[in-house]
Amino acid sequence: MISIKEYAQSRNISYEAVRVTIKRYAIDLKEEIVKQGRTRYLTDTAIEFLDNHRQKHVLDVVAETDVLQEQEQTISKLKEEIIILQKRILELQQVEVKAIEDKVRLEIASENVSKLEQEISLYKPFVFGLYRKSKA
């Protein structure tokens, strides 16, 4: 049998953590804790119970850490994909701007063509394949 303080020191955990754990499992450890004076002592069964509980807790933390690492990796991959998609969006926006500019140029050019066609329609054939502007 060892005291709670000695148990905590031997496991490199705080006295308070051991006390809280004992309080949490008071029903299971009721007969495994012996009180002599003001000091409480743990029986071998209580020590084994606390060690097993501690190991499970550590395994849970390790499992949670693994899950967190996987989630962080997923997040970083998604951030990289977001960056790639943002670059692609910028490229497509630039293509769209160029297409709009080309459309405007084409509209201006078609207007110029229609004006030139109207002006050409004013010219009528004259002599020897020459043209003269008709009087309107």
Mean pLDDT: 88
Gross morphology is rod-shaped
Number of helical elements? 4
Distance between the termini: 124 Å
Rg, rounded, reads 44 Å
Characterize the quaternary organization of these chains: single chain
> Using DSSP, what is the number of strands?
5
Strand content: 5-15%
Uncertain spans:
none
Strand order of the largest sheet: 1-3-2
As for the number of domains, it is: 1
Q: Given the helix and strand composition, which structural class is it? A: mainly alpha
- Estimate the helix proportion, in percent: over 70%
H/E order of the elements?
A: EHHHEEHEE
Main sheet makeup: 3 strands, antiparallel
Explain the overall architecture:
With 136 residues, the chain is mainly alpha-helical. The chain has one domain. It is 74% helix and 12% strand. It has helices at 4-11, 15-24, 26-29, 44-121; strands spanning 2-3, 33-36, 39-42, 123-125, 131-133. It has a 3-stranded antiparallel beta sheet with strand order 1-3-2. A two-stranded antiparallel sheet has the order 4-5. The longest helix has 78 residues, at 44-121. The chain is rod-shaped, with a radius of gyration of 44 Å. The mean pLDDT is 88.
Structural topology:
Layout: E1 2-3, H1 4-11, H2 15-24, H3 26-29, E2 33-36, E3 39-42, H4 44-121, E4 123-125, E5 131-133
Helix pairs in contact: 1-2
